Amino acid sequence: MDEAVAKNLAVFEEKGWILIPEALTPEETERCRIALNTARANGWEEGLNHVGNMWFDSLLDRMPEVFAPMIGHPSVRPYLEALYGPQCQLRSLRGHINPGPYDQEWHLDFYGYWQQNDKARYASRGTGVNTTFYFQDNGPGIARLTYVKGGHRIPPPPEITRPGGWSVSEQAFNEWYDAQEHEIVYPKAGDCVLFFSHIPHKGSKDNEEVERSNIVCHYQNNPFYPGIAHVSVLQKPAIFPLL
Ligand SMILES: O=C(O)CCC(=O)C(=O)O
């Protein structure tokens, strides 16, 4: 393995996330930004939720020429190879636009991580990672992404968690995670963050006027099963990015 990749992976495992600067070229970034805005203009969003997040689950079907290159993109491929090898599956590709005020709830993408059945004798543990590509600059006073420090190693306590892993309520999760130690990251346009899908995180805008959008590719290794608690819709069939 490349020395820089090995070094970054050690940081990833320690912190639960890493920033990959300039993962996309300016041309790729602009192409995705414009395509996401076109998707919005066409009304292709699934919805706009109460924290200000608009999401798109059909981009891969509708605009494969723009968004398929995000899957196993050369900037993230060495990490996916090192983490999952040929077991790497794309779980989903989801676009986000934050059109106005945005302050996301604390959440895990893979809520079921801590509730897997370790008692089954030959069951292996599923793990997911996100690669989130940003199309505008985040920064102090603009927008940010916040993680719970070391949150990939801290199981959510039972008083805020239902049996399958989902939160008992958004308020309970917010109160508990607001009280933990945080790490803020400011990805710039074209940057990517790679993080464990079970680390608690939230995106926020400090300036509600700015344009903000991203694409998330969720990857998983193959012990996942259809009923597992995860925020995203399973791509059918799940795509193997030919690692
Ligand atoms: O808005 C953000 O920066 C957070 C996006 C997010 O929740 C994710 O990538 O899973």
Q: How much of the residues is beta strand, in percent?
A: 15-25%
Ligand list: 2-oxoglutaric acid
Instruction: Report the biggest beta sheet as strand number plus sense, adding barrel if it closes.
Output: 7 strands, antiparallel
CATH superfamily, please? Answer: q2cbj1_9rhob like domain
What this model shows, in words?
The structure is a single chain. This protein is an alpha+beta fold. It has a single domain, classed as Jelly Rolls, CATH 2.60.120.620. Helix content is 22%, strand content 22%. The protein has six helices and ten strands. The radius of gyration is 17 Å and the shape is globular. The structure holds 2-oxoglutaric acid. The site of 2-oxoglutaric acid has 9 residues, from strand 5, strand 9 and strand 10.
